[in-house]
Design goal:
Blueprint: E1 12-14, E2 20-22, H1 26-46, H2 55-75, H3 89-103, H4 119-144, H5 149-172
Antiparallel strand pairs: 1-2
Helix pairs in contact: 1-2, 1-4, 3-5, 4-5
């Protein structure tokens, strides 16, 4: 199977079910940004240490990356068509559970922090900002078409999850994000 199809050489692409749209279509922007977020998470994970103590962390992130892929599929499904995978309430609940678990181990935030710390932590902060953009793009799609409301909630919660994950990683690695300068 060839990796290139040449079908998009004139500036359009296929949604699921073969519906063709311009590459600047809001749905393409939204699912493409989810793909960027997924890649940014992959980069962050490549900086993570390995070992038994990180197994749960990697396991949760495997689920998160899979769910981001599913969100992309939902956003790439034309109106009136069935989606193969659907984000559900328990997906949001998993993020909340992990946020609460990791946050309980962190020092209380007393001020804003700047993205940084370890390479893994800084990369998770970057992934968080890409997820925020994906959320904005999905909301734009929702203005035009029906979007599973849990997709928006998941992306919103995912950015919170990534913020806490970045702090958690930095804390475990003995690094801290720089505080916001007061002036």
């Amino acid at each position: 199977m060839k990796i290139y199809t040449k079908s998009g050489d004139k500036g359009d692409t296929s949604l699921l079910y073969g519906v063709r749209v311009p590459k600047y279509d809001a749905r393409v922007e939204a699912y493409g940004t989810c793909d960027e977020a997924n890649s940014a998470i992959g980069v962050a994970l490549s900086y993570m240490p390995q070992g038994k103590e990180w197994e749960e962390f990697f396991s949760v992130f495997h689920v998160v990356q899979t769910k981001l892929f599913h969100i992309g599929a939902e956003l790439a499904t034309p109106a009136g068509k069935e989606v193969s995978w659907k984000i559900e309430e328990e997906d949001v609940e998993l993020l909340e559970k992990m946020i609460d678990k990791w946050d309980a181990e962190l020092p209380v935030l007393k001020n804003f922090v700047l993205p940084g710390g370890s390479q893994a932590g800084a990369s998770l902060h970057l992934a968080r900002t890409v997820v925020r953009r994906a959320e904005r793009k999905a909301i734009l799609v929702r203005e035009q078409l029906e979007v599973n409301p849990i997709v928006i909630r998941y992306l919103n919660r995912l950015s919170d999850f990534l913020f806490v994950a970045a702090r958690y990683v930095n804390h475990k690695l003995g690094k801290t994000e720089p505080p916001l300068h007061e002036n």
